[in-house]
Task: inverse folding
């Protein structure tokens, strides 16, 4: 992911929902950013550690990931 504002690659995904211990540890290491429990329809999915910019659309991002998983699943069925 590249920050659209400053062009930095120093970005992390924003994770929503009730965080697990694993996610807390990841946030401590600054591998992700915890966005809280509530996901609004315009919640951003990416965070730039250099300029603090947040962008993207979390629900679209989740949809894309779900479709990727489905595609992988379909491929397994064919094999
Ligand atoms: Zn940035």
Result:
């Amino acid at each position: 992911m590249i920050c659209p504002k400053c062009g930095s690659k120093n970005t992390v995904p924003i994770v929503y929902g009730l965080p697990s211990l694993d996610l807390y540890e990841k946030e401590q290491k600054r591998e992700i950013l915890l966005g809280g429990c509530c996901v609004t329809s315009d919640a951003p999915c990416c965070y730039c550690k250099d300029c603090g910019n947040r962008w993207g659309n979390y629900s679209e991002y989740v949809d894309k990931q779900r479709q990727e998983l489905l595609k992988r699943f379909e491929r397994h069925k064919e094999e």
Summary: The chain has one domain: 11-78. The longest strand covers residues 11-16. Residues 3, 5-6, 8, 48, 50-51, 53 surround zinc ion (CB under 6 Å). Helices lie at 21-28, 58-78.
